[in-house]
Amino acid sequence: MKRAVLIVLDSLGVGEMADAAKFGDVNVDTLGHIVKELPSMQIPNLQRFGMGNIDGVEPLIGESSEIIADFGKAKELSNGKDTITGHWEIAGIITQVPFLTFHEGFPKEFIRQFEKEIGTEVLGNYAASGTEIIKVLGEEHIKTGKPIVYTSADSVFQIAAHEEIIPLDRLYEICRIARKLLVNEWQVGRVIARPFVGKNGEYTRTSNRRDFAVSPPSDTVLDNIKNAGKTVWAVGKIEDIFNKCGITDAVHTQNNMDGVDKTVELLKQDFEGLIFTNLVDFDSQYGHRRNPVGYAGAIEDFDRRLPEIMENMKEEDILILCADHGNDPTYSGFDHTREFVPVMVYGAKLKQGVNLGTLSSFADIGATIADYLEVPYSCSGKSFLKRVLK
User: Fold this and answer.
1) Is residue 310 within 8 Å of residue 319, measured between CB atoms?
2) In sequence order, what are the residues at sequence separation of 6 or more whose Cβ sits closer than 8 angstroms to the Cβ of residue 54?
3) What are the sequence ranges of the domains in the chain?
4) What is the domain class of 3-93+216-388 according to CATH?
5) What is the pLDDT of residue 351?
6) Which of the residues 182, 236, 272, 384 has an alpha carbon 20 to 30 A from that of 102?
């Protein structure tokens, strides 16, 4: 009974791509700059997975002589550096035309239509850090009941609201209205509900975030696996990123460690197919907030849980660790960075210590999963299974 476990370490890039400058990124390196900020970071299990042996990474965290996984990095063929683009490419879709972005805020025509549909005016409508904009506009939001809207360098329309002012059901309804309107010349990849709590200017975003994404334009490896009669478990925000397409079962998570807990729980069950997990805290809590020390701590936290994941794998399970883009916490601004992503593959049926070099696309991951699960594959990417299979 074959299963693949794919865990996305959200935003853990391993160095800038050749075209990074076109995306406004120069000398970016999420992992490398974290290590320089915190050279004492301890990640022995990821080192055993070959993270320090990946081409270009080894001077940073040191090579390991005891490699138990296969390792490499992948470049992004898609025209973008956002969450949806990265995850879709991992699953086999290359995005040539990037999603629309509105760095100067959304057009007045759209805002007027949106306000008419939801029955209230909005606050904000500019690019900002989510934690900063609720500091600036939180009090006015509480006094007026007006939702806060904002965007970023990504293709997103984000709506923040205090849970005691706009209840979650109403916030999600508002997001669905925005999703319905944000099409054609206004289409963005995701509408994101950003609920928060607190008082007197001390606000904290909650785990009740919801993403309302566009559907993939064609089948992904998730659809291929589902159509073959196998199970596709989505853990974390995966269900939202793919707008439920190709998914048989889903569970949302509170944070990284809850994501690991849920993944371990699923490993203990009997089914054939895929567990697809996103660990978002690396990105949302530390990358966007430009907190390299916190990011390092989150990597160490995951490293400590990696043996537990391995211990609960069955004989025919394979585990793939990767990322979907970079988010250098030492770089200017607060947005994603255009980087290679790590790829580490482990399983009892696989060789150990194979250097995969640089894969031609994130989509090679999806192709390899389909190959291992022996399902027809209709997407982009080239399987590297023969290189790592015993």
Assistant:
1) yes
2) 14, 71, 72, 73, 342
3) 3-93+216-388, 108-212
4) alpha beta
5) 97
6) 236
Give the N- to C-terminal CA distance of the chain in Å, as an integer.
Answer: 17
Question: Which architecture does CATH list for 108-212?
Answer: 2-Layer Sandwich (3.30)
Token pair 């706009």 in the structure block, residue: 166
CA distance 155 to 84: 9
The first and second tokens of residue 63, run together, are: 């090579």
**Kind plus residue range of the DSSP H or E element containing 109:** helix 108-118
| Chain centre to alpha carbon of residue 125 | 24
Its pTM stands at: 0.90
The token pair that represents 317 in the structure block: 């399970």
Residue 62 in this model has a pLDDT that exceeds 70: no
Given a contact cutoff of 8 angstroms between Cβ atoms, the answer to whether 186 and 100 are in contact is: yes
pLDDT per residue as tens digits for the range 228-238: 999 999 999 99
Tens of pLDDT, residue by residue over 319-356, are: 999 999 999 999 998 889 999 999 999 999 999 999 99
